Amino acid sequence: MELQVRLLHPDARLPRRAHPGDAGSDLFAVEEVVIPAGERREVGIGIALAIPPGYGGFVQPRSGLAFKHGIMLTNSPGLIDAGYRGELRVSLYNSGAEAFTVSVGERVAQLVIQRVEEPEFVPVDELEDTSRGHGGFGSSGR
User: Fold this and answer.
1) Kind plus residue range of the DSSP H or E element containing 69
2) What does the pLDDT look like over 23-65, one tens digit per residue?
3) pLDDT in tens, 90-108
4) CA–CA separation, 117 and 130 (whole Å)
5) How far apart (Å, rounded) are the C-alpha atoms in residues 54 and 82?
6) Could you tell me if residue 34 is inside a domain?
7) Where is 41: in which H helix or E strand?
8) pTM as predicted
9) 141 lies in a domain?
10) What is the CATH number of the domain that holds 35?
11) Hey, how many other C-beta atoms are within 10 angstroms of the C-beta on 137?
12) Residue among 45, 51, 49 at smallest CA distance from 108
């Protein structure tokens, strides 16, 4: 599968897998942004994608940034619909104790392209019973 990518910024880079077979492709910042502890900031990626119908782009956090610095995505996973053609931007949250500076060219998130179903939603009077039933948050124990 080929995916068309438009570079919108002089520092923009194509998404790139760190290792062959990786599901996620790294996304790179095109601007320096300081994220104070306990706050969130938007970071430009500087690219636009042409995701084909029947697919979605899912923006995931980078585990190294989360573990080492407490940097998380505020909407994880972020969803890029097939019809969107604007710039990719990510919203990062700093859960750490110190300010964190995102540098130009830094890997800030990962992009996973997945096939998605487009079901027709049908109203019904009853749903099939399951062993879980109505059990919600915490229903399976600790």
Assistant:
1) helix 63-69
2) 999 999 999 999 999 999 999 999 999 999 999 999 999 999 9
3) 999 999 999 999 999 999 9
4) 23
5) 7
6) yes
7) strand 40-44
8) 0.89
9) no
10) 2.70.40.10
11) 5
12) 45
Q: Which of 67, 68, 80 is nearest to 27 (CA)?
A: 80
Give the Cα separation of 82 and 3 in Å (integer).
Answer: 11
Compute the mean pLDDT over every residue in the chain, rounded to the nearest whole number.
Answer: 95
Token pair, residue 6, equals 């438009």
Phi and psi at residue 68, to the nearest 5° = -80, -30
Q: Give the chain's domain count.
A: 1
Residue 94 covered by a domain: yes
| Domain carrying residue 67 | 4-115
Closest CA to 95 of 69, 60, 113, 57: 69
Average pLDDT of the segment spanning 55-79: 94
Let me know if residue 130 belongs to a domain: no
How long a stretch of residues is the chain?
142
CA separation for the pair 136, 134 (Å, rounded):
6
Q: Alpha-carbon distance 57 to 89, whole Å? A: 13
